[in-house]
Amino acid sequence: MPEPVSDEAAHARWMAITLARLIGAAMAVVGLLITAERLPLPQWTGYPLLFVGLFAVFLVPHFLARKWSSRSK
After folding, report:
1. Domain range for 37
2. DSSP states along 6-66
């Protein structure tokens, strides 16, 4: 069984997961604004940004939490 991590390491991991969600949400919003032609960028650039942002919001935190889990795998 792995050793428990310190409070500072746990806080840093929580912060990384939270930042992944926030950055992903910001990317998804910018992607939506581009695809809705609210920002003066080519519309095709909004779709990849939207999908990468949604990936960062929904899947990256799950992968990080599984990687850092203290439970046996």
Report:
1. 28-73
2. PHHHHHHHHHHHHHHHHHHHHHHHHHHHHHTT-SSS-GGGHHHHHHHHHHHHHTHHHHHHH
Beta-carbon contacts of residue 20 (< 8 Å; ≥ 6 apart): 56, 57, 60, 61, 64
Q: Give a yes or no: residue 8 inside a domain.
A: no
What's the structural domain count of the chain? Answer: 1
Q: Examine residue 69 and state whether it is found in any structural domain, yes or no.
A: yes
pLDDT one-digit tens code per residue, 15-70: 999 999 999 999 999 999 999 999 999 999 999 999 999 999 999 999 999 999 87
Q: What is the pTM of this model?
A: 0.86
